[in-house]
């Protein structure tokens, strides 16, 4: 289906993905920030899903909820597990229960951090999840809570997300390019940088399938831009897009940059199940980066 008859409720509407969904070509998108819709308040969540569904149906639109809200501060979560759990598990569960009660389909966003990162081939959705961080554990428990709530739901795992509407690696590299002559970036972690513009288009397509009652046959799908790279090569590509000399970025190892939460060494997610569900694979990460700068260069350079 086209997005023409779709209505989206997007909790987490002020985040990177939420902002991108808010500007998608869907006739009705309600994308509240946490100040307007707090997933920790189950009664508020129930009311919001109920009134959104009513408004959509009154306008002859088909309602779908996309959960773009999450506690995403990976390092802070290590010492703030209760806060991460209250949003990523309990908040997600409350949303899924509200969707089940009102028969509204739910697309729930999740992450590569549910995996250990020890693999050397792309992760399939059914591969064993073995999170190594508090963030990853709460996101995995959130997936399970969503899928057991009785809603028509699909979990979409993505990775290495960047876009105009948030703090992310591309914007950090843009700032460091202005501030420093040279910098070191880790070369021993690989993944697929994913532009919110392409991710949002994929999520809208999936929401459209739900709205058409062509629910995906699998409860978990992976959606990232195609290909793989390291943070170091990604940084060099950002420098190239900025018109700066990529040689100013030098490789280093993870050991040289210890963080409170360990980063997965391998975050490449297979898009096979996504394509098998009839959904359009996202383009290669490198051309997506060029498209992101063409579309949102001013914001990404800030
Ligand atoms: N960023 C990545 O690289 C990445 C990678 C893999 C997967 N993901 C997943 O993709 C999804 C979207 O990520 P993103 O990068 O767009 O995240 P983001 O920019 O950090 O946005 C998350 C949003 O969640 C909102 N939020 C936090 N607590 C909330 C609460 N109690 N109630 C309602 N909203 C709340 C925040 O709103 P306030 O700021 O107003 O509190 C924030 O705007 C998440 O599920 C994330 O786990 C992200």
Short key terms for the protein model shown above:
single chain; 302 residues; alpha/beta; Rossmann fold; binds NADP nicotinamide-adenine-dinucleotide phosphate
Written account of the structure:
Helix content is 41%, strand content 15%. The chain has 302 residues and is α/β, with parallel strands linked by helices. It has one domain: Rossmann fold. It has a six-stranded parallel β-sheet with strand order 2-1-3-4-5-10, sandwiched between helices. The protein has a two-stranded parallel ribbon with strand order 6-9. A two-stranded parallel sheet has the order 7-12. Helix 4 runs parallel beside helix 5 (134-147). The radius of gyration is 19 Å and the shape is globular. Bound molecules: NADP nicotinamide-adenine-dinucleotide phosphate.
Give the topology, please:
Layout: E1 6-9, H1 16-22, E2 28-30, H2 42-58, E3 62-67, H3 74-77, H4 81-102, E4 106-111, H5 134-147, E5 153-158, E6 161-162, H6 169-179, E7 183-186, E8 190-191, E9 194-195, H7 196-211, E10 220-222, E11 229-230, H8 231-242, E12 249-252, H9 272-276, H10 285-301
Parallel strand pairs: 1-2, 1-3, 3-4, 4-5, 5-10, 6-9, 7-12
Antiparallel strand pairs: 8-11
The protein binds NADP nicotinamide-adenine-dinucleotide phosphate.
NADP nicotinamide-adenine-dinucleotide phosphate is lined by residues 11-12, 14-18, 33-34, 37-40, 68-72, 87, 91, 109-112, 139, 158-161, 166.
